[in-house]
Structures are given as structure tokens and as C-alpha cells.
């Protein structure tokens, strides 16, 4: 990829350091113990290395909180799902990984397919302002979304309120379903979350460099290697843009 231009460097590291917003609520892409790590953090470190500046991680507990802070000057680069609603404030790259989203339903549920879930009276637990919340908010016509702050809270809400379904990222739901006696993971998917890299709108040179960076780390195999290093399954390297 091309050398970083002065304009791109100014966009991405205006104070001589790379401030990267990371959603630690996504256990597939991040981890905190014993220190920050995971796919997103490893790629952020690679980006800082290429820029030749220190990395400053700006932590968030949810993708919604990360996205909402885009216009507040909290970070110059963010790792989060690319959604049309977020694109009003954030310039996104093509995705670097893709993650399927589906539902868990409780024991004895009459819901047998993804299509069955969108019915009158069906209540779905979901992590507020997640990429799949934004998707279902656009597409559901009958079912009701019941929001919680983060995936663990959505799981607790699903169980405690005896809701009809729990929406989430499939690899995480595979683990969650084992915690609920009789619960069932639905076959298929209702969406594919496209995890991308973004920068606040108006940073055009920085956005161009980030797009080149994402294509390079996919093509070079780096994304696949950090997935393997972190032992993550159920996540796919996104195809070339």
C-alpha cells in the first residue's frame, strides 16, 4: 500500500498518537485480561506501527457508545460494525471480518425459523444500538425489540423476562445457549454484521488510508492470522472489496 500522506497522518494522529475506539463489549473481537487484546486491538496495534506513533486505546462497553461518540472528538479511528445509520457520522472502510447474527429461543418455543420471529406479540431481547439492533430496527415489521445495555445484559433480560427470542452474534449465542436449559439456537441467520474500521466524517485523507489498510491486512493474511492467534471461530475474513 502507499505511504501515508501528511494529510492522512494529520487526520489519524493529529496529536502524535493514534486514538482508537474499541468496543470491549464484543467478546469475539476484543478481550481485556490480562491486558487489552483480541482481533480489533491487534489490528489497531498494526495500524499504529505503520503510522509510527503510539497507540492510545479509548475503551467503550458497547458499539452504540462508540458510535455515538464519533462526533465528540473522542477518537480518530474506531473498530465497529458498518451500518447505514452510523454512516451519517462515520466514514467506513469495507469490512475486515463478517459475523452472522441469529436468535436463541427458549424451551418449547413454537418459533421454528428466522421468518417466524417477526410476528405480532413476539418480544426479542437485544443489545441496544448494536449493529444487529440497527438492522432489525429497520427490517422487523411486527415483533418488538426489548433493549438492554450490552450482550450479557440482553441474555439476562431474555431469561428473567421470559422473552420469546434473544438476538445476537451467532458465535456468542453458541456459548449462551448452553447456559439455558432447553433453549435452542435457530438455524440460518437474519443478517451478517460487517465489522469495519471508521473515522469521523470529514477526515477524507484518513478514510482513504484506512480503506487501503483494511484491504492490505486482508490480502496479506494478517486478519486470518490474528483470528487464529486469538482462537476465534465463527468469524469469517471479509472478501476483497
List the helices and strands and how they pair.
Layout: H1 6-12, E1 18-23, H2 39-51, E2 55-60, H3 63-68, E3 77-81, E4 90-92, E5 97-105, E6 123-127, H4 131-139, E7 144-148, H5 151-160, E8 165-169, H6 170-176, E9 184-185, E10 191-200, H7 204-219, H8 222-229, E11 235-237
Parallel strand pairs: 1-2, 1-3, 6-7, 6-8
Antiparallel strand pairs: 3-10, 4-10, 5-8, 5-9, 5-10, 5-11
Helix pairs in contact: 1-7
Protein described:
By secondary structure, this protein is of the alpha/beta class. It folds into two domains: 6-97 and 192-237, Periplasmic binding protein-like II (D-Maltodextrin-Binding Protein, domain 2, 3-Layer(aba) Sandwich); 100-191, D-Maltodextrin-Binding Protein, domain 2 (3-Layer(aba) Sandwich). 32% of the residues lie in helices and 24% in strands. The chain has eight helices and eleven strands. Strands 1, 2, 3, 4, 5, 6, 7, 8, 9, 10 and 11 form an eleven-stranded mixed sheet that branches. Helix 1 crosses helix 7 (204-219). The protein is elongated, with a radius of gyration of 18 Å.
